[in-house]
């Protein structure tokens, strides 16, 4: 990876073996959701870790794998609103299995025709869901149900 590889405005966490790419506007609660996901999975005895916060580099790899890593200089940092930029334990990269888009609650269909969408990112087709911004527990509930549909044989990570 070159130092000039572009990054996107997103965060990433690992929940068990699954990388989640968290996208949304500034102030939508990406960092708070990331922190809640790591804490909740860890409290249930599962591996979970921060990968990136705010700026994430994505790379499509052979075999249909999308990998996320923190932008250079932001490794191991997490913004905690009201507390500042803090150092956290982190993993260097994650294979993205689910994109989570944080949107204003009014923009999310109550009964969507397709609960799990797909998006082509860096040449890789990835599952995608939409969750309400700034409602981390509701977002975790939605992510838990997406996990049950996408990975039915996996443990109850959340």
TrEMBL record:
Q: Could you confirm whether the keyword Disulfide bond appears in this record?
A: no
Q: Which GO terms describe its molecular function?
A: ATP binding; phosphorelay sensor kinase activity
Domain of life assignment: Bacteria
Outline the extent of the HPr kinase/phosphorylase C-terminal domain: 3-103
- Sorted UniProt keywords: Kinase, Transferase
Question: Where does the chain cross the membrane?
Answer: none
Query: InterPro entries in the record, alphabetically?
Result: Hpr_kin/Pase_C, P-loop_NTPase
The Gene Ontology biological process terms listed for this entry are: regulation of carbohydrate metabolic process
Which Pfam family would be a valid example here?
Answer: Hpr_kinase_C
List, alphabetically, the Gene3D superfamilies matched. P-loop containing nucleotide triphosphate hydrolases
Would you tell me the protein name for this molecule? Hpr(Ser) kinase/phosphatase
| Source species of the chain | Roseibium suaedae
